[in-house]
Amino acid sequence: MRTIIAALAALAAIGAGLSVSTADAEVLHYAVKLTAAAETPPTASKGVGVGDVTLDTTLRVLSWTVTYSALTGPATMTHFHGPAAPGAAAGVTIPFGGVMTSPLVGTSPVNDGQIGDIRAGLWYINIHTAANPKGEIRGQVIAVK
């Protein structure tokens, strides 16, 4: 899918008289570990989760797959928040939308400011439930080296 998107973006740029090389594309990878202890404030949940996040800085597209288990009940909201360091709270930047059962899979366009915040480690994923409406498990989006 990314190859098709990159090819379409390159064709569009060529049509506009621009020179684009998909070899110049920068795709960054991030890992997320969601826990109750990372919530602000921490919860007593036994819920856990992991996320795989990819950022294509050329196409300005964020992709994710998040799996979770052992929540106190069904997820009521799932989304990215930012900008915020671990332990600090921030507003919603991208709601996941759609079905909220594990695994959560999606993509979203991002702007240059959001890309900068992601690269700086200032985004996190939060999963909410009825028992924990402010968030049950949370995990910072951390670059994979």
Task: Describe what this molecule looks like in 3D.
The protein has 145 residues and is of the alpha+beta class. The protein has one domain. The protein has helices spanning 2-15, 112-119; strands at 27-35, 48-56, 61-69, 75-81, 92-95, 104-109, 124-129, 137-140, 142-143. Strands 6-3-2-1-9 form a five-stranded antiparallel sheet, covered by helices on one side. It is globular. Mean pLDDT is 88; it is low at 1-23.
Please give the structural blueprint.
Layout: H1 2-15, E1 27-35, E2 48-56, E3 61-69, E4 75-81, E5 92-95, E6 104-109, H2 112-119, E7 124-129, E8 137-140, E9 142-143
Antiparallel strand pairs: 1-2, 1-9, 2-3, 3-6, 4-5, 4-7, 7-8
Give the number of helices.
Answer: 2
Radius of gyration, rounded? Answer: 16 Å
Helical coverage, percent range: 10-25%
Q: Averaged pLDDT, please?
A: 88
H/E topology pattern:
HEEEEEEHEEE
Count of all domains = 1
- Spatial arrangement of strands, main beta sheet: 6-3-2-1-9
